[in-house]
Design goal:
Blueprint (H helix, E strand, L loop, with lengths): L1 E4 L6 H5 L28 E5 L6 H8 L4 E5 L1 H20 L24 H12 L3 E4 L2 H15 L8 H13 L1 E3 L2 E3 L7 H12 L4 E4 L2 E4 H7 L14 H4 L3 H31 L9 H5 L4 H13 L8 H5 L14 H4 L1 H23 L7 E4 L5 E4 L7 H29 L23 H17 L21 H33 L10 H11 L12 H12 L7
Parallel strand pairs: 2-3
Antiparallel strand pairs: 1-2, 4-6, 5-7, 7-8, 9-10
Length: 563
């Protein structure tokens, strides 16, 4: 696809992150971490699908709510027409029983279908499989799922008409979003949410959203200027529900969110280093080069840039708090020295996920597939390309890294409370007299309360397969459960990082007077100033929930992402 320039979690964020004077995130069903940019800042995008060049950047543009128009490349349309004609010719020659074309599905796969039943069977497939429940996928994920599905169809291996893919794109272009429930998929193809998408595209009673209103597709499609109904022909319903396309769209959303949070975690750590006047040696390029991990080298380089020019992270800066009793620190705790390695683990998993998702979006993931044989004839091949094992396990691995960053962040914010562990910061980061004022101790407890939840949700759901459907589907990847847990933990990580930012900034302010004449690093100074534009330093104790909510809002809006 060429991009021509011309935007589920648990509800945790929605509950915690209503910033005074700011509406809860609109895309947010429930709790998505990256705020949409202002409408004026969103560039329109025109996408041309050819089945082989869809990019992660294209996906992010859709997820960010950017206005988009999408169409099939002419060559892709012709490829689909030839494949469709070849598939129908193969059936007419007879002899091959084909799953979902002239045979029923699942445990009923041995039941034949005659041609007269084909049209009714397509509707029944969508109706019977649209059994999902729970909150819907966010609009961006639903739109992206339709675009990826159309791009996969454009490869010409599904045997569907180009009109089927174009109907999905017509919904995208018109701004119609199917309501696709999140719960029901076992990672053996996203049958339930994609069946809901299919019912919407053919104009049944399944709900869709259009211009802020929700109603049955049969009523809403004409309001969007689309034909009320669309008729699927033989073999065209199964490719809509088959394949883990919605999992791919949700995973891309998680990668987008985690990428932003990974950068903000680096900023929070750099501000922590300033507050504790940390040893700069742990960032030495020579040390990291000897580990031969590219992501680690990159993290250390960005941290060096953030603290460049800091006078706080020097012997003079460390001596300032207690000159009479100062002794060289030698080296910081493990959580400080190893932070670049921990953060690099998250970036490493993100890179692996991007590579897998790029393949996924440009692959044929349905069953059966249609191939052209030597001599020009086409044949059906049945297999398991809908399986989401790779994505599911990568989501589990990414979730483990997200949880580990949460653990690290909570450990660092905990160090800031202790004069001994923080090398002289006031106890509890109290702005007035410790004892009379309790400071930020309970804000840190918020992070401590969330980290065990992150650790529990980081258990790999991909190890929990169970057989269903009379043994026909006896191994299931549970990829959608892995992705729901990942999104929930991204919600939690926002809050945990907000606690670290709030506390590190307070630590800086509490000792700023004694550090007079010594500058913060260029990057950390900018992050501190950005935070202080929304939250004042803590003097005497005050109501803290609004402070924490404002910092969560800054994280959510990417305002604390290092520039």
């Amino acid at each position: 696809m060429k991009l021509i320039r011309a935007a589920a979690g648990t509800g945790l964020l929605a509950a915690l992150c209503v910033v005074p004077g700011q509406a809860a995130p609109g895309q947010a069903a429930p709790g998505r971490a990256v705020a949409e940019p202002p409408a004026a800042a969103r560039q329109a995008a025109s996408l041309v699908l050819d089945g082989g060049s869809f990019s992660v950047a294209d996906a992010f543009a859709i997820l960010e709510g950017r206005p988009v128009t999408v169409r099939l490349a002419p060559a892709a349309q012709e490829r689909m027409r030839r494949s469709r004609a070849g598939a129908l010719a193969a059936l007419e020659r007879g002899g091959q029983r084909v799953y979902g074309w002239n045979q029923a599905l699942g445990p009923l796969k041995d039941r034949p279908l005659d041609p007269a039943q084909a049209e009714r069977f397509q509707r029944n497939v969508l109706r019977s499989h649209a059994a999902g429940v729970g909150p819907p996928f966010p609009d961006g994920v639903a739109r992206l799922a339709m675009v990826i599905k159309a791009n996969q169809m454009a490869r010409g291996r599904y045997g569907v008409r180009p009109e089927v893919a174009q109907r999905l794109l017509d919904l995208v272009n018109a701004g119609v979003v199917p309501r696709m429930p999140q719960i029901g998929s076992l990672g053996t193809g996203d049958l339930q949410p994609q069946a809901a998408m299919g019912l919407a595209m053919i104009g049944e009673q399944a709900p869709v959203r259009y211009r802020g209103a929700e109603g049955p597709a049969a009523a809403m499609l004409p309001r969007a200027g689309l034909a009320r109904t669309f008729t699927l022909q033989a073999g065209e319903a199964l490719p809509i529900v088959s394949g883990s396309t919605t999992a791919a769209a949700s995973f891309l959303d998680a990668v987008r969110r985690a990428t932003v949070l990974a950068g903000q975690a680096e900023g929070a750590f750099a501000l922590f280093m300033e507050a504790t006047r940390a040893e700069r040696g742990s960032l030495d390029a020579r040390t990291h080069a000897e580990r031969h991990i590219p992501e680690e080298n990159a993290v250390a380089a960005r941290l060096r840039e953030l603290v460049a020019g800091s006078g706080w992270m020097t012997e003079e800066g460390r001596r300032r708090l207690d000159p009479a009793n100062y002794e060289p620190r030698v080296q910081d705790a493990v959580s400080v020295r190893a932070a670049p390695h921990v953060l690099a683990g998250l970036w490493h998993e993100l890179a692996d996920a991007r590579r897998a998702l790029l393949r996924e979006a440009n692959s044929s993931t349905s069953n059966p597939l249609v191939f052209r044989r030597a001599g020009g004839r086409y044949e059906f091949v049945m297999g398991g390309n809908w399986d989401a094992s790779v994505m599911g396990h990568l989501a589990d691995s990414l979730n483990a890294e997200v949880a580990d960053v949460g653990v690290l962040s909570q450990e660092l914010s905990g160090r800031l409370l202790s004069p001994r562990w923080s090398y002289g910061l006031p106890a509890n980061l109290a702005g007035g007299s410790p004892g009379l004022n309790s400071g930020l101790v309970q804000a840190q407890t918020v992070a401590a309360a969330l980290v065990p939840e992150m650790q529990v949700r980081a258990h790999p759901a991909g190890t929990l397969s169970r057989p269903v459907k009379d043994g026909q589907e006896d191994h299931n990847t549970m990829a959608m459960a892995s992705l729901r847990h990942l999104h929930e933990n991204l919600d939690r990580l926002e809050v945990v990082l907000a606690v670290q930012y709030l506390m590190a900034a307070q630590g800086v302010d509490l000792i700023a007077g004694r550090m007079a004449g010594l500058p913060l690093g260029a990057g950390t100074r900018a992050l501190h100033a950005e935070l202080r534009r929304s939250v004042a330093p803590l003097g005497d104790d005050r109501y803290l929930t609004p402070d924490l909510e404002r910092v969560i809002g800054l994280i959510h809006a990417q305002r604390l992402a290092p520039r």
